[in-house]
Amino acid sequence: MRKYTIKTLKKHHMRGTIEIVKDGHHQTVSVGYGYYRRKINNGSAKLVYPVGSLQKSITAAIITQLIYQKKLSQNTKISHWYPLLKHSSKITVGQLLTHTSGINIVGTESSHGVNFSENGAIKWIVAKADATPSTKIGQFNYNNANFVLLAGIIRKVTGKSYAANVRSRIIRPLHLKGTYIYQDILRPKTDAISYLYRYGKNYQSPSYANKYVVSQLPGAGNLFSTARDYFKIQQGLSNGKILTKKQFNYLTHLKSKMTTYSGGVYLKNRGRLKLAYGNFGDTHFVNWMQLTTDNRNGIVMFLNQPYGSKNQNRRVAYGILKHIKSGIFIKG
């Protein structure tokens, strides 16, 4: 698997780190530099990568913990915490978790030149939502704002910051060594740089995760991690360390879901597969997860130099997945 994966990535000029899982055994495969100028290899203990939208399942898991602690329910109206937010008396927690709230904010992954505090970012999202036309409540419309508002609910219910909840409920129970909310990244470590393959050369057009954009996305894009740590998180979502299998099933089968998306992941192949795709605005980072729901086979792929379009990256990943197990995985 290692040789095949390295050959495949190099063939398509892709650079990054992948956690490969086959029959319950996992290994990390890394190719190229995560920080070319400083010659730091992908997979180095010094590097962390923006998780992007793959963070949403983590935010959803914390909400699920609070639901099982009877602090709220998927049917609780968000006016309980956001009484002044437009249409909040008609929107449920479950609708935030399934992107069916009707909230439709553009520009959440473009820099607005402000380094927001966590609470400041949530207030900014509320103000933007009030000033932006909504889509129909109950209709699927993927939007980062839903999960920023969920981060705010976590703050209000627990009386602690979203960041503190991630540390206490995710990082510490799993003993993760390479996962941080952006502002907590330790000084010896650094976030990776993203690149493009252009004009026959690797490592062109360097781009990093802009701190202003990161600050806008608590709960939806301010987490940095590694492929290995992220796989451990996915294991934790059903092995009892974060959620039980029953709780994960609850999270992925919310009543408000209108597609296969629920709680940060898409379920496919009659519930046998879980998928998530992420990137980070105005950078070249691409993240792709496709795992069997029992976490015994699949990949977590963090690329800092991708290959073409979203579908092209998926096709390359699918080639690796077929090499792991044929007849299980899907192309998209």
UniProtKB/TrEMBL annotation:
Residues 8-312 form the Beta-lactamase-related domain. Signal peptide: none annotated. GO terms for molecular function: hydrolase activity. It comes from the Bacteria. Keywords: Hydrolase. Its EC number is 3.1.1.103. Pfam families: Beta-lactamase. The keyword Hydrolase applies. This is CubicO group peptidase, beta-lactamase class C family. It comes from Lactobacillus kefiranofaciens.
